[in-house]
């Protein structure tokens, strides 16, 4: 018996590979092979067409690079909006047998029916034309002094990859505007959003009663870090304002802190912005313009909220009429007409108590408020403490509903009588 065991061990030792040969033998034993390929998500392209485009076949060797290579081939075909290539094991006994799963998304498709050879209805699936996927959003906004603006925004999604959008806003009325805007949002990386665009715009300046016409091209990049939003903008515009005609090059940067959980009705939150812009005129000379604005929202008894806002628009020199900030109207000094005052520098402040009349469970909210607005406008070189401060006191009725807000106020402007101011519209 002992001799028999020794003989078996000797035979095993002489037939089993050792050293480098053993290593090669084990590598061959571990080589993975494509045992099956499965295709999911296709409606227009057949399984055979997807397999042909993938460039793989059953029985071929599977390597770590295979999924990436298949993805690249399918992406290059231009037939699919989204592609995912997964590796799965075809057997729990033999780990070398691999199933390759290909998941594709051909984008929007159209289903139609035709008559078959035997008179039956046959379904035909085709890819929809991209322009058939245009989305439309309304433009509706208004403000005393500028009138009501109405129009439409036509948008096409994913024109330069996922999370991108090409938009064409067209509006008339108070603000006449046509533009082409392309934006791209990023899930990761140094930038959160990039936007480029070109457009024309015209509206009447309520202070000077002159048409302000502008042709503009611009690019903007943004980065969001928690509640902090950083932005940079560069552009060029041609301005026609009455007898004035200028070409400007602008470069700016801004930072915003926004802790609002519900922008439609903030509570216990802060919204603050600091912005700087350099304006270079083709005729020579530059200006540095700044804007500082901060608003705090404090929740009081029940649903009431106390909001306090301060702002300052400044500059380092005299500005042309079309760049000068305005004071008066719904946006910053109720009780006075829009553009009642104008200057190189405008400083404003307001305190407002909001009281909703409806439950927060409703989709829309109706409420009232009481406010005090104050502000002044003056020329560069003058001192703030030497200026006359204008004040408006009144109340308003307001309504919010998701992306829509409307406010109508009645206020008494000290030294100017009582006036109705309005503002609001859709925000997207």
In short:
The protein is 11% helix and 56% strand.
Element layout with pairings:
Blueprint: H1 2-15, H2 19-30, E1 32-40, H3 47-54, E2 61-62, H4 66-77, E3 82-89, E4 97-105, E5 109-115, E6 121-127, E7 135-143, E8 147-157, E9 164-173, E10 176-185, E11 193-205, E12 210-225, E13 228-241, E14 244-258, E15 269-281, E16 286-299, E17 305-315, E18 326-327, E19 341-342, E20 345-356, E21 364-378, E22 390-401, E23 404-413, E24 417-426
Parallel strand pairs: 1-4
Antiparallel strand pairs: 1-2, 3-4, 5-6, 7-8, 7-24, 8-9, 9-10, 10-11, 11-12, 12-13, 13-14, 14-15, 15-16, 16-17, 17-20, 18-19, 20-21, 21-22, 22-23, 23-24
Any key phrases for this structure?
single chain; mainly beta; Porin; 16-stranded antiparallel beta barrel; 4-stranded mixed β-sheet; 24 strands
Tell me what you see in this structure.
The chain is mainly β and 428 residues long. The protein has a domain at 131-426: Porin, CATH 2.40.160. 11% of the residues lie in helices and 56% in strands. The protein contains four helices and 24 strands. Strands 7-8-9-10-11-12-13-14-15-16-17-20-21-22-23-24 form a 16-stranded antiparallel β-barrel. A hairpin with a 2-residue loop joins strand 22 (390-401) and strand 23. The chain is elongated and about 90 Å long. The model is unreliable at 4-28 (pLDDT under 50).
């Amino acid at each position: 018996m002992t001799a028999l065991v020794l003989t078996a061990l000797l035979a095993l030792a002489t037939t089993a590979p050792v050293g480098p040969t053993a290593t090669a033998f084990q590598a061959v034993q571990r080589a993975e092979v494509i045992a099956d390929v499965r295709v999911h998500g296709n409606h227009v392209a057949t399984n055979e067409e997807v397999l042909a485009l993938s460039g793989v076949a059953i029985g071929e060797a599977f390597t770590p690079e295979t999924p990436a290579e298949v993805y690249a081939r399918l992406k290059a075909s231009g037939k699919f909006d989204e592609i995912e290539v997964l590796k799965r094991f075809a057997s729990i006994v033999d780990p070398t047998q691999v199933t390759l799963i290909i998941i594709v998304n051909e984008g929007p498709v159209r289903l139609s029916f035709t008559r078959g050879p035997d008179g039956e209805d046959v379904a035909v699936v085709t890819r929809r034309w991209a322009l058939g996927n245009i989305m439309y959003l309304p433009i509706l906004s208004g403000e005393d002094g500028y009138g009501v603006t109405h129009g439409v925004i036509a948008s096409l999604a994913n024109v330069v990859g996922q999370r991108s959008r090409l938009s064409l806003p067209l509006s008339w009325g108070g603000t006449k505007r046509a533009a082409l805007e392309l934006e791209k949002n990023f899930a990761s990386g140094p930038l959160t959003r990039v936007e480029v665009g070109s457009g024309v715009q015209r509206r009447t300046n309520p202070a000077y009663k002159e048409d302000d016409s502008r042709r503009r091209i611009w690019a903007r990049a943004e980065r969001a870090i928690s509640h902090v939003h950083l932005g940079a903008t560069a552009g060029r515009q041609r301005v026609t304002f009455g007898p004035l005609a200028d070409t400007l090059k602008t470069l700016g940067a801004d930072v915003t802190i926004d802790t609002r959980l519900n922008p439609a009705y903030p509570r216990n939150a802060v919204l603050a912005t600091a912005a700087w812009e350099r304006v270079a005129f083709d005729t020579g000379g530059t200006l540095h313009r700044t804007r500082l604005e901060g608003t705090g929202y404090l929740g009081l008894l029940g649903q009431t909220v106390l909001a306090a806002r301060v702002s300052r628009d400044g500059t380092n020199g005299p500005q042309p009429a079309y760049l000068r900030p305005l004071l008066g109207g719904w946006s910053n000094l109720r009780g006075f007409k829009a553009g009642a005052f104008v200057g190189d520098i405008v400083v404003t402040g307001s305190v407002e108590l909001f009281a909703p009349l409806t439950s927060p469970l409703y989709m829309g909210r109706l409420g009232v408020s009481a406010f005090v607005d104050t502000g002044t406008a003056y020329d560069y070189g003058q001192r703030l403490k030497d200026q006359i401060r204008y004040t408006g006191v009144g109340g308003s009725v307001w309504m919010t509903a998701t992306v829509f807000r409307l406010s109508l106020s009645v206020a008494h402007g000290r030294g100017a009588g009582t006036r109705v101011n309005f503002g609001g519209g859709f925000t997207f």
